[in-house]
User: Fold these one by one.
Assistant:
Number 1:
Amino acid sequence: MAILILDNHSVKDLSIDYSFLDSSDIEINHSSIDFMSYIVFGYPSDWSKKSHSRNSFHSIPFIGITKCVHINEYRKLKRNEYLNLIVEYDRQNTPNLKSKSISYGPNLFGISGCGLWYINNFDLKSEPKLIGIMNEWSITNRNRLIATRIDAYTEILRNQGIIDFQETELFGFK
């Protein structure tokens, strides 16, 4: 895991072309539910190509709607539910934005660093919340994607005095 801390000048320069998350877009202390309420959004290597003739790079986003796995799966994959979130990956039924159809999904190498988002399906006015950063496509089970909870990142930054953010309750510090 790496965290890049930007100075104010860099943030100002980057803000010309990019937008940053607001703290209200992040949800810590998330309790996973067994419902299709999660989105994996990123750019896998298979759907990203360099054009040598145009000297450019083109990517098609991967958007996977998924659900968290049962708590018993965490032990099988040697993960902790307080630090990780594990979601399903149904490669046979993946939305393809380029063809606008459901098709066989991409090889997910290169997806590390993308967001895992929670959507409250019971409150249609709510905005998606970032709850994790994807970091592994399990070798032992290709139907599973593993994220580090956003709480781990906010706690590192909070403990270093870099952000003023609510303390997570997941790690048992309180």
Note: The helical segments are 8-14, 72-76, 150-159.
Number 2:
Amino acid sequence: MARERIVIGLNGSDDAELLIRRAARILERTDGGELVAVHVRTTGGTAGESPQVLEAQRRLVNDLGGTYHTVSATDPARALLDYARKSSATHIVVGQSRRGPLAGVLAGLFAGGTVEARVVRGAGDVDVQVVPRVPPQRNAPRRRPDLGRTRVAIGFALAAALPALLQLLLAAFDHSVATAVLIQLAGAVAVALVGGLWPAVVGALWSSLLVNYFSTPPLGDLAISDPQDLLSLAVFVGVSVAVAGVVDGSARRSKEAARAQAEAATLGDLALGASRSEDTLDGILAEALDVFGATGAGVYSSREGTAQGSGRMSGPAGVRGADGRIWSLVAGAGDTAGWEHGVTGLPGSTGLPGSTAEPVDADTWLVLFGREVPAMESRLLGAFAVHVKAQLERRQLAVSRREVLRLAEGNSMRTAILRAVSHDLRTPLAGIKLAAGGLLQRTVTYTPAEERELLETIDECTDRLDQLVGNLLDMSRITADSVRPLLGPVRWNDVIAPALRGLPDGTVRVELPANMPTVEADPVLLDRVIANIVENAVKYAPGSGITITGASDGMGAATLDGYPSGELRIIDHGAGVPAGKVLEMFQPFQRLDDRAQATGVGLGLAVADGFVRAMGGTLTAQETPGGGLTMVIRLALSTGSPGARHAAGQPRQEAT
């Protein structure tokens, strides 16, 4: 059995949801099929289309599992039938025409009937369902394209002056009534070209009076003696009004076409930017300032639910409307000062003069400050609102993606930690268990040297176990983003000595320049960073000579977020690390050349890098001249007060 395919004919009106849901109900009664919405765009209906309505229709069709298509045609009935035949449709759903009785009669005489009637006649074996439409609202008549107040005013002035000037020209020579009528008709056409229909009508009436008084016998009298002259004047007025109407319509269509061309160019730029992933929300608002000539633009969203009570809330909390919803600024460009006093169009607002609000969705609005956008530009503003909605959805998707990645990384880290606990911690635990069990054996007698060796084994395994557990816990905190450093002025010398505690003398040489400036760091975390890096160098470059030094002036060549930085270098002369594995070296559970697990679980550098980043610094690896590896720690120079740098740019974090 062939699958049902239902084609829905849409014309961009706001009641298309009724047609879409009716088609979906028809499809539900079958064994499955395909839903296809076709928006037939005509030159006469384009101006009344709303981008938000079209976007809502497209989303509804997609949510119902259908597809949305747009075609352009001069004959919507023929275009819909052609598409239905091409797609092998089994049903066509169209809406009933909203035309009045007189318009329906005229359509039957000159166009072969209404659109739905022609679809029914031409559908053949395709089932057609005509859905009654919701009656249109009478309080929102369609606006004719405006020629501008200045142009219309000039037209009225010309309608008053030009007929009189032409009549003065006629007075200079003998002329007939027909000549006077033709010359005044040319003047009426000129008035219509400049000011449109109504100035031309006024000019035609004024011209008829002048011709009647000065050119129609008896002269100097409004009475007309010859019936033919009366007919000539009547024809003159009728032709003048008709020609003026045609010229006015042509002028308005020309202006509307120029405006549509400018809108198309603007929408093309927006679409091009979106395809290149350059169409950020701030970029859209900045372009809206240029296109509409506004002083500021902002996107405002209400929080979920309603607030208790009423009244206005200012500041970071946003504005509480009279309906209880709280509105907050999501993004802005230009001058948005004073938006908290209320914005025209926002639910529950008091209104801010000189602003325009356009709904993005039920809880989000696009607001322009400094200009009230006229109705003729509302379609373009609606297109900007659609792009704003797309960018907000892109932001939400990016946030969701980052959250998913963070959760995935956390799961991977937990798996790795469990693997490390189940394998890498067994060695020190086994050593402690074996040594302690041997000492507890009463049937075995140990020499003092053997007892000391067993106790040293317990001590060594305990230290190693403490280090492994500490690194695992630190890595868990870094992965969970729960490291909160207590930043303050720290001298390098104050943290290097504790970090090297426990190492044999001579293992590391400290050659710091005198009077190195203090850096902004957490001394406990910085101690752990240096200890982990030194331990890693001792482990992988034993006996090569390890040196801790700093820049000659104690300051790094690079800056951190615009702040001068201090620099510490830990240098070894071992085998070094291949350039292709430098980035891998900072990943958790990585060991150089896949060394045995007896060297550790591979967390030392990952923990050090996480702690340095938490303190706002960087940890990088460089090749040591002559062979080896140099680890470079850069931290911002301290300003002298605890957490001053963080206080200037972000809230200071407490230690944990």
Note: DSSP finds 18 helices and 17 strands in the chain.
Number 3:
Amino acid sequence: MQQSSPALWAEAVASALNRAEATPNAVAQETTESGGWSIDWEGQCEGSSLWFTVYGHPTASTAEVRINEWIFAPVSLGQAEEFLFKALSGDAVLQRGVAGLGSWRLKITVGSQVIVNTDREGSGKPETEWELRLLQQGP
């Protein structure tokens, strides 16, 4: 298994922020109590307020990414920059999941792979500026 250096993830995150012209383009990197790491960002991109956290561990080759209330796992280092860039720039699809169940799915295509949220902390209809912009774009 390939190990995951937080410095490499921080580079991918910084590159995505720069490409998306997000402000600020700096991140906070911390060590977690479990020996893992997190990279946090909160700011503006294309007129929308957003935040994300990338959680990883030196022994894992993938990380968990939380964008606002949307949780994606696993995301590989090779996918991280493009994944975050597309999320920040609005190149994602937000749609209702299975009819009648009230769940929502956020899909981001990286290369030939579609990464779909594995969970969502909030419930109910999406309501943030960023989510509403994704809904207006449609699939």
Note: Residues 38 and 55 are 5 Å apart (CA to CA).
